[in-house]
Amino acid sequence: MRTLIFILILFTTADVQKSRAQNDSTSSLQSLINRYLDVKNALVSSNADTVKAASNLFSTSINEMRAEKFTSAQNKVWIQYQEKLIYDTEHMKQSDDIEHQREHFSKLSVNFYKLLKGLNFFQVDLYYQFCPMANEGKGAYWISEKENILNPYFGKRMLTCGSTKETLKANQQ
């Protein structure tokens, strides 16, 4: 009987620890998403100083990510994109040039999208959006928390230029 109780306690403890780990990962990822959205919204407002500040917070969130709580497959995805996110974020937080920030945001957004798709869990619907005019007519993507278009590449000049290419449905685990 004692052995059975011990086994039940052991499994219950393991389930609680697994649940906490998943909550830590979900919370860290949601913080990272929120900081990305702050960068995007700062670019919409076309304020380089605000972009620098938001990029700095995004960088902090990257460094605070609780990746050790990911599954093995999720951890591989995180490792694949972490340095790429850091690279572009560093450029954005060190630049006073809004166009240079937007250039790096374009690369950051593609990698962040791939990261989110690979991790495959988030708490809210997100929208993968595209502006065909950005990046000297080559086009550029971004992720938004809103379905309506607020273009980070042109700000007020072409605020609603673009379209939603994909909806990333909330599917937290």
Fold and architecture overview:
By secondary structure, the chain is mainly alpha-helical. The chain has a domain at 2-121: Up-down Bundle (Four Helix Bundle (Hemerythrin (Met), subunit A)), CATH 1.20.120. The chain is 60% helix and 10% strand. It has four helices and three strands; from the N terminus they run H-H-H-H-E-E-E. It has helices spanning 2-44, 48-63, 72-94, 98-119, and strands spanning 126-131, 140-144, 163-168. Strands 2-1-3 form a three-stranded antiparallel β-sheet. Helix 1 runs antiparallel to helix 2 (48-63) and helix 2 (48-63) runs antiparallel to helix 3. The longest helix has 43 residues, at 2-44. The two termini are 34 Å apart. Mean pLDDT is 87; it is low at 10-22.
Question: Topology, pairings included?
Answer:
Layout: H1 2-44, H2 48-63, H3 72-94, H4 98-119, E1 126-131, E2 140-144, E3 163-168
Antiparallel strand pairs: 1-2, 1-3
Summarize the structure.
Helices cover 60% and strands 10% of the residues. With 173 residues, it is mainly alpha-helical. It has a domain at 2-121: Up-down Bundle (Four Helix Bundle (Hemerythrin (Met), subunit A)).
User: Would you give the CATH topology of the domain at 2-121?
Assistant: Four Helix Bundle (Hemerythrin (Met), subunit A)
Unreliable stretches covering 5 or more consecutive residues: 10-22
Measure the end-to-end span: 34 Å
How many strands, which pairing sense, and closed or not: the largest β-sheet?
A: 3 strands, antiparallel
Proportion of residues in β-strands: 5-15%
Calculate the mean pLDDT score and round it. 87
